[in-house]
Amino acid sequence: MTYTSHADLGGQDVPGRIVQEPEGEVFHSAWEPRVLALTLAMGGTGSWNIDQSRSVRETLPAYARMSYYEIWLAALERLMADRLQVLPDEIEAGRMLYPPRETKRVLRAAEVAAALAKGSPTLRQIDSQPRFRAGDRVRTQVRHVEHHTRLPAYARGKTGIVEHLHGAHVFADANAQGLGEQPQWLYTVVFDGRELWGANSAPGLRVSIDAWECYLEHSAP
Amino acid sequence: MAHDPHHEPHHDHDHDHDHEHEHERHGHDHGHDGDHSELGAMDLRVRALQSVLSQKGYIDPAALDVLIDTYQSKIGPRNGARVVARAWVDPTYREWLMRDASAAIASLDFTGRQGEHMIAVENTDDQHNMVVCTLCSCYPWPVLGLPPTWYKSAVYRSRAVKDPRGVLAEFGVSLPDTTAIRVWDSTAEVRYLVVPQRPAGTEGWSEDRLADLVTRDSMIGTGLARTPEQR
């Protein structure tokens, strides 16, 4: 099966203009905050991780036609259906038709503030030494992978400079596939605009990504 | 806050807020017509889902209200503005913020979800910083709250990395050619906060007064801090 992300948009030609928005205008209809809250509350049951939910969102076939919270809702429904927690006919009926499945936890109102303040840090201790140092010239991997990944298409097969080592972080590609955290060293890699976009790139433009170690290989100067 | 209608140009009838905003939302996102022939269909669907989740004991309905209230009224860009204003007035704090943003920001009690690993990047005459997430909509929630619709839009995510000056122009910002642009694509769990340049003519201003000049967009890098005249 071919894995296709509809969310990898960097550098693509997308028609339209940016519509500015005043500060404080967080939602645009009453159901949106409810989708946010349901998503966070269900995330709080520990049934999936953030990378799994991103993977489901980016592979929704109608992604490009959906608004942000429509994407969140559709992904939430699919994550739960995949785990037999809530089936589509129950949502249609608006009531429980099948017994609940066990979840690890339930996020209670009294715990929300502490849970949000704690977040889910992804920094981990690992034994290996980092392969790269700030200043190293590196080339990003070229090949397309058949799963969720955080190496954007526009930055594949490009040469850049390692700027910063962030420590070892949960590896999104593995975590999204339910293969565990498999933490790896994470680096900021900066590219010259011309490397990404060709000779016509705006002068002085530099773009960086945060890249896990396995996305990178040494590049001859 | 969700129902703040001050941006709406058309108030010609007594309307249901949800319907009005339902209509607006599509305009904001992609400019396409809604797929929902029946207004309020999404509200009904989400209500139905919430009922099922409650009945199954997966969620505490009271927790939903706390979550909504948190992101509607407690966590927003005024948090980040306090960080920036502190950095403007206190060189020791500024140095700490640039060296260890997570700790410096946590010292003001802004921590947690979608801001676990923070980096602050400072605008200068030589470099202007702009933040994007081309892969989804990663954004530093503890300091900026939830992202605006345009930040999540395909238009912004596609263009910010390729034509940042064009994006800035749409925001009414024009920078000298001598200012290089640096775009930070948040592709992992590191979140970026732009520290805009302190406007001229603010010498001796208090931290609170300075914080009023720090806009959300200036901390994403699609805007500049307000000048005293724009305040």
From TrEMBL, chain A:
It catalyses: an aliphatic primary amide = an aliphatic nitrile + H2O. It is an enzyme of class 4 (lyase). The keyword Lyase applies. This is Nitrile hydratase subunit beta. Residues 6-108 form the Nitrile hydratase beta subunit-like N-terminal domain. Its EC number is 4.2.1.84. Residues 122-217 form the Nitrile hydratase beta subunit domain. Keywords: Lyase. Belongs to the nitrile hydratase subunit beta family. NHase catalyzes the hydration of various nitrile compounds to the corresponding amides. InterPro entries: CN_hydtase_beta-like_N (IPR049054), CN_hydtase_beta_C (IPR042262), CN_hydtase_beta_dom_C (IPR024690), Elect_transpt_acc-like_dom_sf (IPR008990), Nitrile_hydratase_bsu (IPR003168). Gene3D superfamilies: 2.30.30.50, Nitrile hydratase, beta subunit. It comes from the Bacteria. One of its GO terms (molecular function) is nitrile hydratase activity. It comes from Variovorax rhizosphaerae.
From TrEMBL, chain B:
NCBIfam families: nitrile_alph. It is an enzyme of class 4 (lyase). Its EC number is 4.2.1.84. This is nitrile hydratase. InterPro entries: CN_Hdrase_a/SCN_Hdrase_g_sf (IPR036648), CN_Hdrtase_a/SCN_Hdrlase_g (IPR004232), CN_Hdrtase_asu/SCN_Hdrlase_gsu (IPR023900), Nitrile_hydratase_asu (IPR018141). It holds the Pfam family NHase_alpha. GO terms for molecular function: nitrile hydratase activity. Residues 42-222 form the Nitrile hydratase alpha/Thiocyanate hydrolase gamma domain. Signal peptide: none annotated. Belongs to the nitrile hydratase subunit alpha family. It comes from the Bacteria. Residues 1-38 are annotated as: Disordered. The gene is nthA. The keyword Lyase applies. It catalyses: an aliphatic primary amide = an aliphatic nitrile + H2O. The lineage of its organism: Bacteria, Pseudomonadati, Pseudomonadota, Betaproteobacteria, Burkholderiales. Keywords: Lyase, Metal-binding.
